Amino acid sequence: MRMSVKIDGVRYDDDVEPRLLLVHYLREQAGRTGTPIGCDTSNCGACTVLLNGRSVKSCSVLAVQADGAAVTTIQGLADDSGVIVAATVLPFALPLGIAILAAAAYPPDQPRYGESAPTRPTVSRR
């Protein structure tokens, strides 16, 4: 089955088997190996990605369900320094799931780590 998906800002057009899981597509066909296969039971959350801005466990989504969608992996969250990507070497799922969920909840117009935050006006007391 032919599918087209945008992963971390890059468009991929591929033929996939209808039963292929998104996590396997990301790792094996798209080369996005930052998305690990954690538990094979959909319990740990290691394979969490953003699918059109919503967090999903990519081990429980078929690749063809992402046809026409935008997928953000842990690698897509990293800045040029690769700070978030460094979390993928940890042997457990918690940091990955938290990073993906935080990205989904964090407004894109807010300053990132190392950037200047807007200052609040000072409150004068009388």
Describe the structure.
There is one protein chain. With 126 residues, this protein is α+β, with helices and mostly antiparallel strands. It has a single domain (2-105), classed as Ubiquitin-like (UB roll), CATH 3.10.20. Helices cover 16% and strands 18% of the residues. The chain contains 2 helices and 5 strands. The protein has helices at residues 22-29, 94-105, and strands at residues 2-7, 10-15, 48-51, 54-57, 70-72. Strands 2-1-5-3-4 form a 5-stranded mixed beta sheet, sandwiched between helices. A hairpin with a 2-residue loop joins strand 3 and strand 4. The longest helix has 12 residues, at 94-105. The radius of gyration is 17 Å and the shape is globular.
CATH topology: Ubiquitin-like (UB roll)
Question: What class would the helix/strand composition place it in?
Answer: alpha+beta
**SSE string:** EEHEEEH
Largest sheet: 5 strands, mixed
Name the beta content range. Answer: 15-25%
**End-to-end gap:** 70 Å
**CATH class categorisation:** Alpha Beta
Q: What is the radius of gyration computed over CA atoms, rounded to a whole number of angstroms? A: 17 Å
- Form type: globular
Report the CATH superfamily.
Answer: Beta-grasp domain
CATH architecture: Roll
Number of strands: 5
Instruction: Output mean pLDDT.
Output: 78
Number of helices: 2
Q: Estimate percent helicity.
A: 10-25%
Spans where pLDDT lies below 50 across 5 or more residues = 85-91
Largest sheet, spatial ordering of strands? 2-1-5-3-4
Whole-number count of domains: 1
